[in-house]
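Recap slide: von Willebrand factor type A domain protein, sequence and predicted structure.
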Amino acid sequence: MNRFLLPPALLCLAAASNLCLSATAQDVTITIKSTPPESDSSASDKAPFTGNRPAVDVAILLDTSNSMDGLINQAKNQLWNIVQQFAKAKKAGKTPQLRVSIFEYGNSRLPAAEDYIRQVVPLTDDLDKVSEALFALTTSGGDEYCGAVINEAIKRLDWSGEPNAYRVIFIAGNEPFDQGPLDFHTACKKAIGEGVVVNTIHCGNYDQGVRGHWQAGASLAEGKFLNINQDEKVVHTHAPQDKIIIELNAALNKTYLWYGGAQQRRAYASNQAQQDANAGSGLSSRAAVKSSSVYSNVGRDLVDTYDDDPAAITKLKADELPEELQNLAPEQLLERIQAMSKKRAEIKQKLAEASRERQAYVAAEQAKQPAAPGDATLGDAFSEAVEVQLEASGFEVEK
């Protein structure tokens, strides 16, 4: 039972089907009726979890020195393909709570005293913020200190303490892995000691990556050594379903009821639209992610927040609500949120169906074409590591 004071204007919210109240002149007691938790009998014995959703924390460490424009472009173009892989994972029938962090290193614009390292975004479930951060990255020559940036990610990020969470670092670059003031052996051993796997992605010749200790770094932290061509062009296949996916994505955006200060609300809405635009021809992949529960805006959007914790809505001030909702009576506000939640669920279902049809179409088209030789990209590297490592952490991954 949660006990707290409610603003008088919000007392009627408790009339909702999932809230009961008793009131005195002194306080209001709210009891939230919860449904029994989903059974976790299907979860792996070696991978229990105690929270509402299993945890996945991913830190992506990108070399942003002069030669890495291709790597950054691949990250921008393939972000939503990468996130889709996590959206397909479940543990005990539950999609994970995905948090992503971005670090850049090796950029001469960054302070030498800080080893040319910058945390671009901390671990966050705000995937639009992650996309925004990626599209703001630029390159400039510098010194690439892999050991130092791994150590900084381990030290600075608030990694999940969930038992058997999937905690992972992907570090990508092309200079020798042993540069800088901190020995990579120390950093990689510290990472795995904290339960964080380190996958290394060398950009360039495979043998050069081995000689440059990228393979050794991955081995120390129980990760995979991966090799890509950072300049390989990313090709998005067009499909008949793209038109309906674009239309459904636009309809989905209209169901978001952003809250917070007026400037904050505008920023959330504007950034969602901007990241749709940034996705470009990869919007279908982004839309597929938005149809899943991996794309969540709890703490920013009324619908997601209400679905996660109905009582949280009662704590909001009127001026934190969208302008069109600020003058509604509490029961009317609740009705609007519930109606929007139902509408969003319907759109998401249609969007997920269209995305599956698109995926089947693309697979069939690709099967008709002769296998074309091509170098691996950043997205390919993630694909090679993620599924195997998620399954090792007790997740089931949809094929």
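The first helix runs from residue 69 to 87.
DSSP finds 13 helices and eleven strands in the chain.
(End of recap.)
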